[in-house]
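Researcher: I'd like a structural prediction for the single chain below. Treat it as a standalone chain; there are no partners to consider.
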Amino acid sequence: MLDTQAAPVGTRGARRPVRPTGVERTFPAEDLIVSKTDRRGVITYANDVFLRVSGYELDEVIGQPHNLIRHPDMPRAVFALLWETLAAGREIFAYIDNLASDGGHYWVLAHVTPSYGANGAIVGYHSNRRRPSPSAVARVTPLYRQLLDEERRHPTAKAAVEASSRLLTELIADRADSYEDFIWSIINREES
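Model: Treating it as a single chain, here is the predicted structure.
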């Protein structure tokens, strides 16, 4: 099954499929990718590093869903956990493989937080992303591969997410108390 990601081109909303090329992009360790979205995940802000690394122009991302850069080889279970965590008003750290406009991909360690309005309600989300180490990517890749394999065994997206989310819970239980603890174990290993 060929999984493509639709991507906007220009301001007219024309779309073209972006197919992964397998070429990995990278960016300097000191660079920080920043984006903001509304409550639905529609991009309202992207910094110059986001644009440079993703290969998009500002007018191509503003007003588009953040999943514009979702790599088809990222398990849906990770995004389900991300949205569940954010909806509960909590921050999340996650290793994410993103898809650039040219089909290249780039790994990030994402820190996503809810943004609150004056009345205390969630009005959107803020994400800072930095370059992870190759060893961190090597630690999450087998887990993500298992989740993807599980997802591909199911005929619908809903069934795939449910099954891979159950598997994620089981696999994490063997490694840590939670996905967050698993991610922090990788981060702490990198910093020591």
